[in-house]
Specification:
The complex is a heterodimer of chains A (450) and B (129).
Chain A (H helix, E strand, L loop, with lengths): L7 H11 L13 H4 L11 H12 L23 H8 L1 H4 L11 H18 L3 E2 L6 H15 L6 E4 L5 H10 L6 E3 L19 E7 L10 H13 L3 E5 L18 E5 L15 E5 L11 E6 L5 E6 L5 H4 L12 H38 L5 E2 L7 E5 L4 H12 L5 E2 L10 E5 L6 H12 L5
Parallel strand pairs in A: 2-3, 2-4, 4-5, 5-6
Antiparallel strand pairs in A: 1-7, 6-7, 8-9, 10-11, 11-13, 12-13
Helix pairs in contact in A: 4-11, 6-11, 7-8, 11-13, 12-13
Chain B lengths: L9 E2 L4 E6 L2 E6 L1 H7 L2 E5 L6 E2 L4 E7 L3 E5 L4 E6 L2 H4 L3 H4 L8 E5 L11 H9 L2
Antiparallel strand pairs in B: 1-2, 2-3, 3-9, 4-6, 5-8, 6-7, 8-9
The chains are: A alpha/beta (450), B alpha+beta (129).
């Protein structure tokens, strides 16, 4: 059936009203050659034939279920218990849209509330919003929130070079035209404790990723010292964190962060070729009016029964229009639900176990690579990713790993950091077996001749 | 509906009031305005030192049903804020001309307020609404 409600007579009347004789006339600004091009399509196939063709095409994918993968750099291959996909696929969740009417959306709202509660506990913060698109946009929203806290009177933003390069690009895109100046991300060699010295009375926030893009951990004492220095300038400290690492590490909230944001895909969300993803965003209670996104809250109805609603909506753009802190009035509900189901299935002990497995496997890999001639593991404490200088271009090594061994190699750091040319970022999660890790090391050891 | 009016302040068409005290002025919203807003839940005051311009939005008041802008009745620089409103936004409802004041400004032009409505004119305006 057609979903276009206008009849031919309706259309004729509308065309007459605007003074054109046919719909085609509306396209006369488009050059003739591009107007109605002939599409060179093959003949139609039957359902059986097209499924077979698409199946053949999909077999060309190098999916992580079938191959060892050591690629991380912001998206991580974790094991997802079956219960997560079961919960997310339930039609009550999968088909529901924006829960503007709380009286018919209690399940969705409660799920968001549970997600928020878990994110707040994990990050050590007071409040979490219902989520953002991804880690990059959540980080940009954190910067915008900081600007709003100072009512745009401060215009300097300090970014760590260890913040994901794409997040830094998105922060700059989001804030273009606001007249901001950026500092801090000129050199990856700059230690995070140096960033506080770039903070002045015009600085709205300092953004630090921990563990950083290279997997390096700034210990709690360092983070606390940074927080103290940032707060001495009156600025906010934004910490971008990997939620799985928080199963093991001190929550950023305990180290003085004012906002904790990041990519939540690692919590129960599939890699899915890069998205949809999940941005988490948590902050302190006193900044709640400046925070972005929607927030689900728990309340009581007139009979004293527990209920859930979206709360503090007057912050949001659909009410406050252009004066709102953020123009985001949506969230990634299903992805947040997957994260909530994942955290529930694992529990705090399970999440810690996942984090420990990641840590131990990555450290086993690093220890073995240290013994390989020509390869240098970069110094410093790390979580489940680390940088390695290689004797050959990373692209060549990755090609060899993939073509000869069916292994998905690491991330070529030279793409984002010229000073890290021929350095690769390798990642291990609990999904990497010892046999896979040994296979990678043996392949790298033979690569000088390969 | 009977509203309260304060004879010692001047009013704007957008329902703010201003009380000039030497080189400074105290600013708030009228009893009519707080009544229309209903229960105030958050007052987003302008930062101290911020320059405000006559008839230009300078802050927001949130109630249970709306988020409304407050327009500066006079130009100047914010010299103090009613910090009690952070914990007690309901003061705007309870005592709009007293404890529910919003902020003080150092006036750019001490005579600027003279052109605003007195209580009698403002009462007439409210009666037409």
């Amino acid at each position: 059936m057609s979903f276009i409600p206008n009849t031919d007579a309706d259309r004729a009347r509308m065309l007459q009203a605007i003074g054109v004789s046919s719909t085609r006339d509306l396209f006369h600004d488009v050059p003739e050659a591009f107007r109605f091009p002939r599409l060179d399509l093959p003949p139609a196939l039957s359902e059986q034939e097209i499924l077979s063709e698409l199946d053949q095409l999909s077999r060309q994918n190098a999916d992580c279920a079938a191959r060892p993968c050591f690629l991380g750099a912001g998206a991580y291959n974790h094991f997802i218990p079956a219960v997560v996909d079961f919960v997310v696929s339930r039609s009550e969740f999968a088909t529901a849209y924006t829960p503007y009417q709380p009286e018919i959306s209690q399940g969705t709202l409660q799920a968001i509330f549970e997600y928020q509660s878990m994110i707040a506990r994990l990050t050590g913060m007071d409040v979490s919003n219902a989520s953002h698109y991804d880690g990059a946009t959540a980080t940009a929203e954190a910067v915008i929130m900081a600007l709003s806290v100072f009512q745009r009177q401060r215009s300097r933003v300090v970014l760590s070079a260890g913040l994901h390069p794409q997040y830094r690009a998105v922060v700059r895109t989001y804030t273009q035209g606001m007249g901001l100046t950026f500092a801090g991300d000129d050199a990856i060699s700059r230690p995070p404790e140096d960033l506080a010295s770039l903070c002045d009375k015009n600085t709205a926030c300092v953004v630090i990723q921990n563990p950083d893009f290279l997997g390096r951990i700034a210990p709690p004492a360092v983070m606390k010292a940074i927080a103290a220095a940032v707060h001495a300038c009156g600025a906010l400290l934004v910490v971008v964190a990997n939620p799985v690492s928080l199963g093991l590490l001190v929550p950023p909230g305990e180290a003085g962060a004012d906002v904790v944001a990041g990519e939540g895909q690692a919590l129960g969300n599939h890699l899915s070729f890069g998205g949809p993803s999940l941005g988490f965003f948590a902050f302190r209670r006193d900044q709640i009016r400046r925070s972005s996104g929607r927030i689900a809250g728990e309340t009581r109805d007139r009979d004293g029964r527990t209920g859930y609603v979206f709360t503090l909506s007057t912050r949001e753009q659909h009410i406050r229009r252009e004066k709102a802190t953020s123009n985001i009035c949506t969230n990634q509900s299903l992805n947040a639900l997957a994260a909530a189901a994942y955290m529930t299935a694992l529990g705090p002990g399970g999440l810690r176990q996942v984090a420990e497995l990641c840590w131990h496997k990555a450290h086993y890999l690093a220890d073995r690579i240290r013994k390989l001639p020509g390869f240098t593991v970069h110094a410093g404490e790390f979580f489940h990713e680390f940088a390695v200088s290689c004797p050959r271009p990373v692209a060549k090594i990755n090609e060899m790993l993939f073509e000869k061994h069916g292994i998905v190699g690491g991330y070529d750091l030279g793409r984002d950091y010229p000073e890290l040319k021929d350095a690769v970022l390798l990642c291990c999660t609990e999904t990497n077996t010892k046999a896979q890790i040994d296979e990678l090391v043996d392949a790298l050891g033979g690569s000088r001749h390969g | 509906m009977e509203y309260r009016f304060d004879d010692k302040v001047r009013y704007t068409k957008t329902h703010e009031w201003v009380r000039v005290e030497g080189a400074e002025a105290v600013i708030g919203i009228s009893d009519y305005a707080q009544n229309k807003l209903s229960d105030v839940v958050f007052v987003d005051l302008p930062a101290e030192g911020k320059a405000v311009k006559k008839e230009t939005a300078c802050m927001v008041i949130e109630s249970v049903k709306a988020a409304e802008e407050v327009f500066a009745p006079v130009s100047g620089t914010v010299s103090a804020r009613n910090e009690k409103l952070a914990k007690g936004p309901e003061l705007v409802n309870r005592d709009p001309f007293g404890e529910g004041w919003l902020f003080r400004v150092r006036l750019s032009d001490p005579k600027e307020a003279d052109s605003l409505m007195d209580a009698a004119s403002y009462r007439k305006l409210v009666e037409t609404l």
